[in-house]
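quick q for whoever's on today - can somebody do inverse folding on this one?? i tried earlier but teh output was garbage lol. tokens:
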């Protein structure tokens, strides 16, 4: 069944993800027992438990000691943590979905006062606006509005290269030799305006998860202001509090 191009436990985890996506294992229902799964996959209990541990950390299954493992009720959502500065497209892939990045528009506009303050530039100075979406299995799940300060871009033609990269952080790293280090942000629930609702294909009466903040490089210089609108019916965040 497996070809061992990746660790065996990872292949088993991928197979269980596939079975959940295809409805063989149903969200909210219990998986077959560990002995049954180990026998089916032809692996040791230890290898199987490694696979289940990966799925548990990703929020795909819930393991109850002495009872068994259950598919999370919200598995149909993309599950992402908030502790790491990962490209959004990677969070979609890790949840087992086909991921895609699409740039909708790139244009120049005067920076309003609130964003100028965040970027530490003059109000009304030139900003480069980039609108993009992230798709999971060809369905839009995130709408992003990003603003780059004018001082950063010396040649506007380079902005078109954003369409060839899968993330803003990758674009900044590859074309400006910047190292995005920290994203200081707030999280809130907001109702979408007409345009955002149309882009994401949602009802204007249903709230979105908005993450809004400033991206800093390794010298703690603000290099981007971003608003990320996540569909609440498609995205779920996990926080680790200690």
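ok took a stab at it. sequence:
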């Amino acid at each position: 069944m497996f070809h061992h191009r990746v660790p065996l436990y990872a292949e088993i985890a991928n197979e269980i993800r596939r079975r959940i996506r295809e409805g063989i294992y149903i969200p909210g229902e219990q998986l077959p027992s560990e002995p049954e799964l180990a026998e089916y996959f032809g692996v040791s209990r230890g290898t199987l438990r490694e696979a289940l541990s990966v799925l548990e950390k990703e929020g795909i299954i819930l393991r109850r000691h002495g009872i068994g493992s259950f598919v999370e009720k919200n598995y149909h959502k993309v599950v992402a943590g908030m502790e790491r500065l990962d490209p959004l497209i990677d969070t979609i892939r890790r949840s087992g979905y086909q991921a895609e990045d699409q740039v909708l528009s790139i244009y120049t506009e005067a920076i309003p006062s609130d964003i100028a303050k965040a970027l530490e530039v003059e109000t009304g100075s030139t900003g480069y606006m980039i609108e993009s979406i992230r798709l999971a299995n060809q369905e839009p799940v995130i709408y992003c509005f990003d603003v780059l300060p004018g001082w950063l871009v010396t040649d506007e033609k380079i902005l078109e290269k954003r369409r060839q990269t899968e993330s803003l952080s990758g674009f900044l790293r590859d074309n400006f030799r910047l190292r995005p280090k920290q994203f200081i942000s707030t999280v809130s629930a907001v109702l979408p305006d007409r345009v955002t609702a149309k882009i994401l294909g949602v009802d204007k009466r249903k709230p979105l998860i908005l993450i809004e903040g400033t991206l800093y490089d390794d010298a703690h210089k603000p290099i981007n202001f971003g608003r990320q609108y996540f569909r609440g019916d498609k995205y779920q965040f996990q926080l680790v509090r200690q």
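fwiw The chain has seven helices and ten strands. also The chain has a mean pLDDT of 91. so keep that in mind when u check it
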